[in-house]
């Protein structure tokens, strides 16, 4: 095997020359706890001599102590560092192992088979060129096998080996092998897996791993290692696709050099090639492909390079450089598949960050069309996505981006979702296609604009966003503020539960999902009214920071004035003007803010009203004063 | 055209470094003067060429490195035109912390772990490149490429972010920082092959030469300067030795070897039968040592 090559001892220079030219394959192993996955990985490490004597001695000692294989080496112990870590409470998603043979270097993504499986497997599969799916010959195709297969097909892994393991325990029976192949092939067809290779093996005994086993003379296919050493690497395939390079960094060492650095996602590029910068649409030609040590005559998918262009055009991080012959698509609304990866569920309507390629934009999930049950592949309706759930969703972005369908290009079609508050990566997704409406709806340019409308009213339009607990006094204060403004001849409008919940939002309830959507609609309506030149007052509990922030970001700077009506829960509950707290305490009212649903206090409100020490009159005056200070009320 | 494994590893490391520079406010590269640092630095030169890497190098010094490491470090920084910051924990200097009187655990904790935190705070770095590899030991195998630290520099293993495709999420709150490991997917053999292929300069200590050593607890320790107290009966003898890893000289065991060229080193490594970290005293201190050190803020 690998490093036992005689060349090492006899001609190290020759050995190095050969080994520096090896290719790299990344693969993932999937299987449930007892399928022999760890044994297989341990065996591959052992056979490629990636184990040193001290490690081997330790393993031999452990095998005698803990092993399940009698006197033989228990390879599983090599990779089972994970169990102990779980006890320590450490999150394990994917462990990476390395080995190499004379032909290739391998990176194995090893994922624990049980808890968190979807999140982990999707993470491991995202960078894999191939997948090994372990099946216990005694058990055949299980629910888990189907689940793993679905995830592999979802992530677009093109090369799948079904390793039918533990053949030694079924007497190396060809019939058993054939039955499993038949059953699996039928299933693979259903989910669109086409290139599947079946190998009967015993990871424990070493049958058909490195050499063909004499125990299974009826099998004429390749060994597992033979397969891994020859299967096509994804980067090589991607060279045949149209050129794409998301710009990572603008390289400007001095005024005479302006280069665009990035990793080539697909295709081939040469100096002189005509390119288009997306989404701006500007075109130019490649001048040089600059790398340390001299310019390149061409560069291919998988390489990190710096391009210079023949024209001076404006390009920044997040843009995509594409071939003019087959440029990427551009859109701001998509159908996607989302995999949720966080304890806090996905809520439609909430605003998240989305990172695709090198671009980060604001995104809202507008609709969960259905959730996919990973075990049965059934579609079910869903209002939110919990940890490890997979759903087909529509997504809307705050601006248009260049993209390709994920099935054509993982780097321009795969994305992550980031929570704006915690900054955590909470989900991952695949762009499928642009929604038609996003391609055809263009903003209508109008001549009478917001400032023109506002000037005729002697005011700057804005939103006074009152937030606070139920019973805090939001509506009462907002009402009085509006009265006072009206008396001054200002043009105002008050949005509150009465005129919104009964009409525009009468289809919404009080779950987290519905609350998010409620606020989104109110924010959008407010935006229209601000556009009309009004001073808008909104009086809603609006308990979540994310949604208030979303509303803020819809407006221009200075237009959003957050008014925190700060009343402690005990005081609000004491007042209980509508008797709602009592109802909630009795359990008759679910999801009541402050009782069984959270209220997230504003961190930096423009105005904070402490109602325990202020009369309603004084509170309203304080708001009016603040408006004067901020120049909202022009000709007073 | 199929890219070689080294080309792909190189491209990945460069991509990671550029992402950090594009998204972090004030990055720094930890430079430990060893072979992994040498490769990381070389990759940085490539990633930003023709610009000089837009961040300084930081050496968290313990005052107990080999003398050849100090001279090599200064030469490299000057040759490449990069800023080199050196930080030594002043408390360590004051209390004269050293591996002989205080033992390797305290020495490492005070001089390396605490020293590193001090330096990151002092300069306000929000992202630090480190040369750790996943193949070094079991607990590294699952380490992310972007590893998040709280404002107190603690590693919260329950709160690490999934990494998919080439997408790294570098967003963080004020005060939080990221340790970034661009060499995560390299193995020791890859590092050596790359050094060979790219002709990367490394500290001469990696090559076999006659050096004064004493044998202590089964390890060959080089008597690098007069600060090393000799035990009764210990007489330094000249032996042809080399180092497989480099750290503080009293904590780094040498191996007897004739390998005085790069191919010979690689040959020896391939034929050898013990893993790399055996030469490091730090790992023997306690079994779960690396995991614990990491949570406390060690690289």
UniProtKB/TrEMBL annotation, chain A:
Listed name of the protein: Multifunctional fusion protein
Name of encoding gene: cysN
Domain APS kinase positions: 460-610
List of residues binding ATP: 468-475
Species this chain originates from: Zobellella aerophila
Catalytic residue positions: 542 (phosphoserine intermediate)
Alphabetical list of Gene3D superfamilies matching this protein: P-loop containing nucleotide triphosphate hydrolases, Translation factors
Source species, domain of life: Bacteria
Similarity annotation: In the N-terminal section; belongs to the TRAFAC class translation factor GTPase superfamily. Classic translation factor GTPase family. CysN/NodQ subfamily.
UniProtKB/TrEMBL annotation, chain B:
Any GO molecular function: nucleotidyltransferase activity
Recorded catalytic activity of this chain's protein: sulfate + ATP + H(+) = adenosine 5'-phosphosulfate + diphosphate
E.C. number(s) listed in UniProt: 2.7.7.4
The Phosphoadenosine phosphosulphate reductase domain, residue ranges: 26-253
Gene3D superfamilies named in the record: HUPs
Keywords from the UniProt entry: ATP-binding, Nucleotide-binding, Nucleotidyltransferase, Transferase
Keyword Transmembrane: no
Pathway listed: Sulfur metabolism; hydrogen sulfide biosynthesis; sulfite from sulfate: step 1/3
Function field: With CysN forms the ATP sulfurylase (ATPS) that catalyzes the adenylation of sulfate producing adenosine 5'-phosphosulfate (APS) and diphosphate, the first enzymatic step in sulfur assimilation pathway. APS synthesis involves the formation of a high-energy phosphoric-sulfuric acid anhydride bond driven by GTP hydrolysis by CysN coupled to ATP hydrolysis by CysD.
Quaternary data: Heterodimer composed of CysD, the smaller subunit, and CysN.
PANTHER family linked to this entry: SULFATE ADENYLYLTRANSFERASE SUBUNIT 2
Family as reported in the entry's similarity comment: Belongs to the PAPS reductase family. CysD subfamily.
Name of protein: Sulfate adenylyltransferase subunit 2
């Amino acid at each position: 095997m690998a490093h036992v090559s005689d060349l090492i001892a006899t001609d190290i220079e020759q050995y190095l020359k050969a080994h520096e030219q090896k290719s790299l394959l990344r693969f993932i192993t999937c299987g449930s706890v007892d399928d022999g996955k760890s044994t297989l990985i341990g065996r591959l490490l052992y056979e490629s001599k990636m184990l040193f004597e001290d490690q081997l001695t330790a393993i031999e000692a452990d095998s005698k102590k803990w092993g399940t294989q009698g006197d033989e080496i228990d390879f599983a112990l090599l990779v089972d560092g994970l169990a102990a870590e779980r006890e320590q409470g450490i999150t394990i998603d994917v462990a990476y192992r390395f080995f190499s043979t004379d032909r290739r270097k391998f990176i194995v993504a090893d994922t624990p088979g049980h808890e968190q499986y979807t999140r982990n497997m999707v993470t491991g599969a995202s960078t894999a060129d191939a997948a090994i799916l372990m099946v216990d010959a005694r058990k055949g195709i299980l629910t888990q096998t189907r689940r793993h297969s679905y995830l592999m097909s979802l992530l677009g892994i093109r090369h799948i080996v079904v390793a039918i393991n533990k053949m030694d325990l079924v007497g190396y029976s060809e019939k058993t092998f054939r039955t499993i192949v038949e059953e699996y092939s039928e299933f693979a067809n259903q989910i669109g897996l086409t290139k599947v290779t079946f190998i009967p093996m015993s990871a424990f005994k070493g049958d058909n791993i490195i050499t063909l086993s004499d125990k299974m003379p009826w099998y004429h296919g390749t060994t597992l290692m033979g397969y891994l050493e020859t299967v096509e690497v994804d980067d090589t395939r991607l060279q045949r696709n149209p050129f794409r390079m998301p710009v990572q960094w603008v390289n400007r060492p001095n005024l005479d050099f302006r280069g665009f650095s990035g990793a080539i996602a697909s295709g081939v590029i040469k100096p002189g090639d005509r390119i288009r910068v997306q989404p701006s649409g500007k075109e130019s030609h490649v001048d040089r492909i600059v790398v340390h040590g001299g310019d390149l005559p061409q560069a291919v998918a998988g390489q990190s390079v710096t391009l210079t262009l023949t024209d001076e055009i404006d390009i920044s991080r997040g843009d995509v450089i594409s071939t003019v012959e087959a440029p990427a698509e551009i859109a701001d609304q998509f159908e996607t598949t989302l995999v949720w990866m966080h304890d806090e569920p996905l809520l439609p309507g909430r605003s998240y960050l989305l990172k695709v390629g090198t671009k980060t934009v604001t995104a809202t999930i507008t609709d969960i069309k259905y959730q996919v049950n990973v075990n049965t592949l059934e579609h079910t309706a869903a209002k939110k996505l919990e940890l490890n759930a997979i759903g087909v969703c529509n997504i809307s972005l705050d601006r248009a981006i260049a993209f390709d369908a994920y099935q054509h290009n993982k780097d321009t079609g795969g994305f992550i979702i980031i929570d704006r508050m915690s900054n955590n990566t909470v989900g991952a997704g695949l762009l499928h296609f642009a929604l038609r409406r996003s391609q055809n709806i263009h903003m209508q340019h109008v001549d009478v604009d917001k400032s023109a409308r506002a000037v005729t009213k002697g005011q700057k339009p804005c939103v006074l966003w009152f937030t606070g607990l139920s019973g805090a006094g939001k509506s009462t204060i907002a009402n009085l503020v509006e009265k006072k403004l009206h008396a001054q001849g200002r043009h105002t409008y008050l949005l509150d539960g009465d005129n919104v919940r009964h009409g525009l939002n009468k289809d919404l309830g009080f779950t987290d999902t519905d609350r998010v959507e409620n606020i989104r609609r109110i924010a959008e309506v407010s935006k229209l009214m601000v556009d009309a030149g009004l001073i808008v007052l909104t009086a809603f509990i609006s308990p979540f920071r994310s949604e208030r922030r979303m509303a803020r970001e819809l407006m221009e700077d200075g237009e959003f004035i957050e008014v925190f009506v700060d009343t402690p829960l005990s005081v609000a509950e004491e007042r209980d003007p509508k008797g709602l707290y009592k109802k909630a305490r009795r359990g008759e009212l679910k999801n009541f803010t402050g009782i069984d649903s959270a209220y997230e206090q504003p961190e930096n409100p423009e105005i904070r009203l402490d109602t325990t020490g202020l009369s309603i009159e004084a509170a309203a005056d304080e708001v009016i004063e603040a408006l004067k200070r901020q120049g909202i009320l022009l000709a007073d | 055209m199929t890219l070689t494994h080294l080309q792909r590893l190189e491209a990945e490391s460069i991509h990671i470094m550029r992402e950090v520079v594009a998204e972090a406010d004030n990055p720094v590269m930890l430079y430990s003067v060893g072979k992994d640092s040498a490769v990381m630095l070389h990759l940085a030169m490539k990633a930003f060429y023709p610009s000089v890497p837009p961040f300084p190098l930081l050496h968290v010094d313990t005052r107990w490195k080999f003398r050849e490491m100090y001279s090599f470090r200064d030469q490299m920084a000057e040759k490449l035109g990069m800023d080199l910051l050196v930080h030594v924990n002043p408390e360590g200097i004051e209390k004269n912390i050293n591996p002989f009187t205080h033992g390797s655990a305290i020495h490492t904790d005070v001089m390396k772990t605490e020293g590193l935190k001090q330096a990151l705070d002092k300069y306000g770095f929000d992202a630090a490149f480190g040369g750790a590899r996943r193949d070094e030991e079991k607990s590294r195998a699952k380490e992310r490429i972007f590893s998040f630290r709280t404002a107190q520099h603690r590693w919260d293993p329950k709160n690490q972010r999934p990494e998919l495709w080439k997408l790294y999420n570098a967003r963080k709150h004020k005060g939080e920082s990221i340790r970034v490991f661009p060499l995560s997917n390299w193995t020791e053999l890859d590092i050596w092959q790359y050094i060979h292929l790219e002709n990367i300069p490394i500290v001469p200590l990696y090559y076999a030469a006659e050096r004064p050593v004493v044998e202590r607890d089964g390890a060959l320790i080089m008597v690098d300067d007069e600060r090393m107290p000799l035990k009764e009966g210990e007489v330094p003898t000249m032996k042809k030795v080399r180092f497989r890893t480099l750290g503080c000289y009293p904590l780094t065991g040498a191996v007897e070897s004739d390998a005085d060229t790069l191919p010979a080193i690689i040959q020896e490594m391939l034929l050898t039968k013990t893993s790399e970290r055996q030469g490091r005293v730090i790992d023997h201190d306690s079994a779960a040592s690396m995991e614990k050190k990491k949570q406390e803020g060690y690289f």
